[in-house]
Design brief:
This protein is an alpha+beta fold. Helix content is 29%, strand content 17%. It is flat. This is Putative RNase H-like HicB family nuclease.
Length: 72
Amino acid sequence: MREYLVIFERAADGGWGAYAPDLPGLGVVGDTREEADTLIREGIALHIAGLHEDGLPIPEPVTTAERIAIAA
């Protein structure tokens, strides 16, 4: 099992976007964060299945994230 980092971003219109940096070209948008979560999970599964079908390597999850506190 692999675990990919997913970035969720709130859009100016109130919707949500999500993407997995280790899986280039995969991104989704939803009306809610929950919808974006569902779509990115489905998208990751489909993306990996497509790579398998095409005989391409599955990218290793290497991206990490960290919150850094800054006095503002």
